[in-house]
């Protein structure tokens, strides 16, 4: 597998973030920064994205670095809306989308790295262009779109009831 200490730390924190997001999405239908799972997702995603900047098999800036920075921007914007726009339920639509989109983007390298490394010695995929990775990412995209529609509808109901 050949991970550096930073790579091991990055992976462990990233797995915690993904698990927290899945728990939040299953329990509440969204990543809610008021909840413990939402806070865990936010902080672990922040750390995981920042540590990704120190990881690269290619010299210089690569697409993974850009993705990590985009995720930092998305979760930071969502946190700003959460912290500074309390009581404004219209911005919850944007906050929900930003957190869900950051989760979706986090799954791209997670799926790629997992499928090209596991099981050790006989990985599921031969490389990032393997059809299995493409099909899995397509499924995740469909789930993201369906989840976003669900979140929008749920937030609309919440806003009407207030």
Give helix and strand order, one letter per element, not per position: HHHHH
In terms of quaternary structure, the protein is single chain
Beta-strand residue fraction: under 5%
Structural class: mainly alpha
Q: How many beta-strand elements?
A: 0
The gyration radius over C-alpha positions equals 17 Å
Major beta sheet summary: none
Anisotropy-based shape: globular
Number of helices: 5
Number of domains: 1
Distance between the termini: 52 Å
**Uncertain parts:** none
Helix content: over 70%
Q: Residue-averaged pLDDT, rounded?
A: 93
Kindly list the characteristics that best describe this protein.
162 residues, mainly alpha
Give your account of this protein's structure.
The chain has about 160 residues and is mainly alpha-helical. The protein has helices at about 5-30, 35-50, 65-85, 90-115, 130-160. The mean pLDDT is about 95. It is built from five helices and no strands. The protein is globular, with a radius of gyration of 17 Å. Helix content is about 75%, strand content about 0%. It has one domain (about 5-160). This is Membrane protein. Keywords: Membrane, Transmembrane, Transmembrane helix.
